[in-house]
């Protein structure tokens, strides 16, 4: 297309269509683009507007690419943190768990900031808004009342005429059951913690509201897990008594 100068009336005949060059709707950039499409030689102001627009678009594309990299990193790191959490809980290493929970929370915050930038970049590029989050079930809450109950000596009535040996055997049997149930309680809370981490990572921390609620629940579950492990006898942390 040959670039033309507008005539004195501000009109340009282009393939039987008449474009009013001095009354274009929209902002100055829209007007500059319309003039360029119409074959009009761009002015210095037009060139400046188009150059800045190109730079802005390039920066927006870079921000979208960076956001994609953040999601990739979050997915990989999230899986590693989940695996480490499961192993740490298995070893009953209470002192190591808070750092893992903090790392999950930091990664979630990083993704949330990155996605906010992505939203702005997509708006600059004229892309649609973010996809609607898939409906997720509420974050399950775990309390001590939902854990297996540790049996008590008061659960069974004492047999009349029972000998001291019978009572001793009964006590030993009760303690074995109590130890088993305490272990089940610990494992139950650990499984809850790992399941929450897995659900967060499945969506690469993208559902910010669910992620925040799940991380808060993990903090509460960690406290419950600590209480459960303290009830075990003997208690070891990181292999030390």
The gyration radius over C-alpha positions equals 33 Å
- Output the strand order for the largest sheet: 1-2
Shape: rod-shaped
Major sheet attributes: 2 strands, antiparallel
Helical segment tally? 5
Work out the strand percent. under 5%
**What structural class do you assign from the helix and strand content?**
mainly alpha
Q: What fraction, in percent, of the residue positions are helical? A: 55-70%
Alpha carbon gap, first and last residue: 83 Å
Task: Count the beta strands.
Answer: 2
Unreliable residue stretches: 1-25, 235-241
Secondary-structure element sequence?
EEHHHHH
Report the average pLDDT across residues. 80
Describe this structure in words.
The protein is mostly helical and 241 residues long. The protein is built from five helices and two strands. It has helices spanning 28-37, 44-90, 97-125, 164-202, 208-230; strands spanning 11-14, 17-20. Strands 1-2 form a two-stranded antiparallel sheet. Helix 1 (28-37) crosses helix 2 and helix 2 runs antiparallel to helix 3 (97-125). The protein is rod-shaped and about 110 Å long. 19% of the residues are buried.
List the helices and strands and how they pair.
Elements: E1 11-14, E2 17-20, H1 28-37, H2 44-90, H3 97-125, H4 164-202, H5 208-230
Antiparallel strand pairs: 1-2
Helix pairs in contact: 1-2, 2-3, 2-4, 3-5, 4-5
Quick tags:
mainly alpha, rod-shaped, disordered N terminus, 3% strand
Summarize the structure.
With 241 residues, the chain is mainly alpha-helical.
